[in-house]
């Protein structure tokens, strides 16, 4: 019997839009961003696009901070929502 592997891949919006419950959002400091895509690879929501500089789709970003933790350049800071 052959079993094909089941792969799960985050897609933009797969968990729905962010509600008013997000306390912090990641902000990319463009002058520090090297475009290495590390944040893109680790984002659990799949909401980061890198075209030269990382860009985050805040409609779906949950504010988990994983991107900040993996950024080698320290180009992502977490800012409190107002």
Q: Give the number of DSSP strands.
A: 4
Instruction: Give the helix tally.
Output: 2
Structural class: alpha+beta
Strand order, main sheet: write it out: 1-4
Average pLDDT, all residues: 88
Number of separate structural domains: 1
The CATH first-level class comes to Alpha Beta
- The gyration radius over C-alpha positions equals 14 Å
* Shape estimate: globular
Q: Which second-level CATH architecture applies?
A: 2-Layer Sandwich
Order of helices and strands: EHEEHE
Q: Helicity, in percent?
A: 10-25%
Provide the low-confidence segments as ranges: none
The main pleated sheet reads as:
2 strands, antiparallel
Beta-strand residue fraction:
15-25%
**Terminal Cα span:** 55 Å
| CATH fold field value | Alpha-Beta Plaits
Structure description:
It is a single chain. The protein has helices at 38-42, 66-70, and strands at 24-28, 48-51, 53-56, 76-80. The chain is an alpha+beta fold. It has a single domain (18-80), classed as Alpha-Beta Plaits (2-Layer Sandwich), CATH 3.30.70.20. Strand 2 and strand 3 form a beta hairpin. The longest helix is centred in the middle third of the chain and has 5 residues, at 38-42. It is globular and about 30 Å long. 16% of the residues are buried. The mean pLDDT is 88.
